[in-house]
Specification:
Involved in pyrimidine base degradation. Catalyzes physiologically the reduction of uracil to 5,6-dihydrouracil (DHU) by using NADH as a specific cosubstrate. It also catalyzes the reverse reaction and the reduction of thymine to 5,6-dihydrothymine (DHT). The protein is α/β, with parallel strands linked by helices. The chain is built from 13 helices and 22 strands. An 8-stranded parallel β-barrel has the order 3-4-7-8-9-10-15-16, surrounded by 7 helices. The longest helix is centred in the last third of the chain and has 16 residues. One iron/sulfur cluster binds next to helix 12.
Length: about 425
């Protein structure tokens, strides 16, 4: 049976599934319920200085639903913990004592002054927690007070605070990054310069979930007024995966340990983050929507996947997909695929035809001999994948590579050769280089 245990920057846990800093980790009651279900660790809901913040008493969450009411995107305008520091610290200490094998990381956010960080670090150390996570990501409320993403968006501040923390604590320091930035590699690089042991990402994405057209105000709203919140859940996963991959492959951040966060609901989501370089993963929305028991599927699914592939431990596949993430200019322009429709699976709905006909390459028939029939016209198909993306039947349309065959669209013989844009004769710069 595959070994799921992790040693992430010295923080040990029985598995890589940690709850992200958020309501699921706001108090001992929740965290102990989570540990009983099997979660490998938690990042405690962000602590700040006393007096505690005050949350709105109106709706603080919003959601985007799929047609089946599945939560696809989730958003919040919640602040950091609104419980007194002393209460949180006492509970952290008690829970860590009762669950010594689980990872206990404490998320922190205090004003951007060295004395504030020094003071809280000392108090967190006394809890015997395993590490700290610096919340440089929260994009609402706290950022307007000069904390959260207001720090995370300025690489120099990220570096400065990371350095303060490394100076004033022996605990491992994880820097949690905001996605509300043009190039996530810059704060990651700054975190490394400041001595951070790892980065975690992503925190939530700035968003307005909708507009209440009766009240002419953002939805949800508090007494008729709304504000931007942080979006998370399955819809943000692609953004998070790209940011994780960017950090994993950028020379200045390559090798920096990563805790992957954003839209993880299943073992497969987690495995994808790990394949792109995440050593652990963190989950918030899925736990809030489905409860703590989802970790069972995550553990058994990941174990089964690893057993099937012969991976004895997580390290055997963490980062395995990173070498295959490249820049567009290095994609093989000699490679070609054609769409193929499985006539036995096709329900003749016509969506592939209309998508290709109206917006792509007019490469799918609608009729044959006067009856509805959907078939790919190889002379026109560019292999773009639009039809497969819109087909309601999974596996009905596949993209088949041409091997040792003539591409009937271009007349070119596809022989498995490799030529990217930097080498292509249509690239004037490539010609100059060749001469
Ligand atoms: C209601 C709510 C509260 C959150 N509070 C915090 C917080 O206090 N500190 C923090 O670092 N992140 C906070 N987050 C962000 C999550 O930790 C996580 O980064 C984000 O939700 C993406 O993960 P997910 O898609 O699994 O939810 C919060 C998220 C939600 C939904
Ligand atoms: S792959 Fe693109 S071009 Fe080919 S049939 Fe599908 S939609 Fe049309
Ligand atoms: S979208 Fe799929 S099911 Fe519908 S006609 Fe095309 S191949 Fe058939």
């Amino acid at each position: 049976m595959a070994d799921l245990s992790v040693d992430f920057v010295g923080i040990k846990a029985p598995n890589p599934f940690w709850l992200a800093s958020a309501p699921p980790t706001d108090k001992a009651y929740n965290v102990e319920r989570a540990f009983r279900e099997g979660w490998g660790g938690v990042v405690w809901k962000t602590l700040g200085e006393d007096p505690p913040v005050v949350n709105v008493s109106g709706p603080r969450y919003g959601a985007i639903h799929g047609p089946d009411r599945r939560v696809i995107g989730f958003n919040n305008i919640e602040l950091i913990t609104d419980r007194p520091l002393e209460v949180n610290l006492r509970e952290i200490k008690e829970v860590k004592r009762r669950w010594p094998d689980r990872a206990m990381v404490v998320s922190l956010m205090v004003p951007c002054e060295e004395a504030s960080w020094k003071a809280i670090l000392k108090r967190v150390e006394e809890t015997e927690a395993d590490g700290i996570e610096l919340n440089f990501g929260c994009p609402h409320g706290m950022s307007e007070r000069g904390m959260g993403s207001a720090v995370g968006q300025v690489p120099d501040y990220v570096e400065m605070v990371a350095r303060w923390c490394k100076t004033h604590t022996r605990m491992p320091v994880i820097v949690k990054l905001t996605p509300n930035i043009t190039d996530v590699r810059k704060p990651a690089e700054a975190a490394r310069r400041g001595g951070a042991d790892a980065v975690s990402l992503i925190n939530t994405i700035n968003s307005i979930m909708g507009v209440d057209l009766d009240r002419m105000a953002p939805a949800p709203n508090t007494d008729g007024k709304g504000t931007h919140g942080g979006m998370c859940g399955p819809a943000v996963k692609p953004i998070a995966l790209n940011m994780v991959a960017e950090i994993a492959r950028f020379p200045a951040t390559r090798g920096l340990p990563i805790s992957g966060i954003g839209g993880i609901e299943t073992w497969r989501d987690a495995a994808e983050f790990m394949a792109l370089g995440a050593g652990t993963v963190q989950v918030c929305t899925a736990a809030m929507v489905y409860g703590f028991r989802i970790v069972h599927e995550m553990m058994t699914g990941l174990e089964a996947f690893m057993d099937e592939r012969g991976y004895a431990r997580l390290g055997d596949f963490v980062g395995a997909a990173v070498p295959n993430v490249t820049d567009w200019q290095y994609l093989n322009l000699d490679y070609a695929v054609k769409a193929r429709i499985d006539q036995d699976l096709c329900i003749k709905c016509g969506r592939c035809h209309i998508a290709c006909e109206d917006t792509s390459h007019q490469a799918i028939t609608a009729t044959k001999d006067g009856v509805r029939h959907f078939e790919v016209i190889d002379e026109e198909c560019v292999g773009c994948n639009l039809c497969a993306s819109v087909c309601p039947i999974e596996g009905c349309i596949t993209m088949e590579p041409l091997v040792n065959a003539v591409d009937r669209r271009t007349g070119r013989f596809v022989d498995g050769s490799y030529r990217n844009w930097t080498q292509h004769p249509n690239n004037p710069r490539a010609q100059v280089a060749a001469e």
